[in-house]
Structures are given as C-alpha cells and as structure tokens.
Write a structure and sequence with these properties.
350 residues; Quinone Oxidoreductase, Chain A, domain 1; Rossmann fold; 2 domains; 18 strands; 26% helix; zinc ion binding; metal-binding
Length: 350
Amino acid sequence: MSIPEMQWAQVAEQVGGPLVYKQIPTPKPGPDQILVKMRYSGVCHTDLHAMKGHWPLPVKMPLVGGHEGAGIVVAKGELVNEFEIGDHAGIKWLNGSCSECEFCRQSDDPLCANAQLSGYTVDGTFQQYAVGKATHASKIPKGVPLDAAAPVLCAGITVYKGLKEAGVRPGQTLAIVGAGGGLGSLAQQYAKAMGIRVVAVDGGDEKKAMCEKLGTETFVDFTKTSDLVADVKAATPDGLGAHAVILLAAAEKPFQQATEYVRSRGTIIAIGLPPDAQLKAPVFNTVVRMISIKGSYVGNRQDGVEALDFFARGLIKAPFKLAPLKDLPEIFELMEQGKIAGRYVLEIPE
C-alpha cells in the first residue's frame, strides 16, 4: 500500500486558532505503534477546548486535533503483534501510556502521569494518517461501519465508563444533563441497553426530538422550565429524584444544581469539562443525604472493548452528521453556539 510523504490536515498553529487546512509530513510509526489511514473522525467538544487552550494542561502547538479516528492500518512497528496490515483500527484520546506506573499496573492507564493524549499532547486524527501505540488502539471488526463507529471511540467509551462509575442498576433512574449532545445521545442508549430509566435534560426542540427518538421517557428543557429541580424529581417514578446524575454540560450551572435533584444516597458523576468551572455542594445536604460526587474520565482498554461490543451488537447507534474535513472550522462555530444535536463525523479525504 502506497503511503505518501505529505498529507492533508487541519492544523492549529497557535493556541486559540485559527485552523489552517494544509499539507504536512505523513508520520511514521515507532516500534510499538501503528499507522492508520484515517477514513473518519468524530468531532468532540474536547477538540475545541484543546485548540482554545481552555484547560490547565500544556497543549502541543502546532497541533492536529481529533481523537475519535477510525480507519485502516497501513504500517506498523516491528514490535506490534496486535494488528496486521489491512485491519480496521480506532485511535482514541489515550494514545499511549508508560505501562510501568501504579495506575498502568492496575489498569487505570488513563490516570498515567505520562499518558500521551491524541489531539492534545500528540497529533490526533484530523489528518489523513495518524499514529498510535498498538496496545491502546481499538480493533474494529471488519463488518462495523467506520463512520458510525468513530463517535464510540471517545463519546461512547467515556459515558459507558461514567455509567459503570455511577453504579446505577437496572430499573433505577438516571438524569443525563447534556443529553442531546454527542456524549448524551450515546449515554441514553447505553443506559437503555442496561435497563436503566432516563430523564434527559437539555435545551431546544431539535435536541428534544432526538432524545425522544432515542427512547427517553422524559425530556426536561432547561430553556423552558420554571423549576428544573422540581421537573426532574417529578419525572422519577416515586418523585424522590434520580438515583444518579451524569453531567455532560459545557456550562458550570448544571454542576451546581445536581445535588438538589439527586435522591439520598445518589451518585453524581462529573464528565463535562466547562472551562474554569467549580463543583460546589452544600456540606450539610451532602452529608446527611449521603450523596456521592465523583469525577469520571475516559475508560481503560477493557472499557473500550466493552463499549465497542455494545455497538457491534447493534445496541448503540450514534446519531451523527457527515461533513468533509475542510469544514471543521464551521463545525467548531456551531459547537460554540450550542447548535449541534448528536455528533459531527468528518470524512477524511483519500
């Protein structure tokens, strides 16, 4: 298979952008890496945060963003045994880790202090060819469509991990805040597949229609309700509130509201990362009602295998819109305006 010396990519040349669509050298895989010819890449809110430099974590510049890339293995290092040329593979947020620290030894490799992050500390998937450590790349079954699988590689794995961290059981009620976005649309489906009841919280008629199409029982529109807390409680069968809350919002206020409508002994899982936001909760209320508040990051390698297996079995279907790689700046604009229902997936030119 012929691999060109130069390739097309979307490049942020400085923090804050703008993006420049241009040709750059094609990377070469190291001994433990695979080179994947990207066919599709999902667009995550994290990609916007990375370009804007929103987080207190040094970001590589110039940067090729993206971390939901699905494609075909076209080259590999001499130490790679997990993949063969022609296999379908996914490049995820966790591009690599040290494999030697306490967290890696305990399969908590996302917490590795020396982890390499696609589209943040190393170049990601908004390019025609991308590299990643073979041990952290996902093997995608040949019969699985690559465009639909791309959002599962971050959005799917992240919310699947959050559900596991929440400990919510079949028959219980889960409130998903930001249910109409890329992560929320998948969280609803994983919850439904697990027998969990969902209260979807988001804003706008398009997101409401999408959530209802996905089978949510109740949609609470934060732009229209006069009492969000009362509406979420009322949506639970006994009126006591949600057993768990997954926070996927890109704003701070929902993170402060969650303790008001989660039930006693309930669990709040923070996943969304609004810039400079704070988590606050009244101490008395949190203690006497025994509320748990936890952060949940991306899943480990086994979480990735399980999340993709749900998809391969037809239990998960990510709502997405296809767009060419050159349209990424316009997609970021829509994202900043909160106008995207579901996920955008970029088609990478051949």
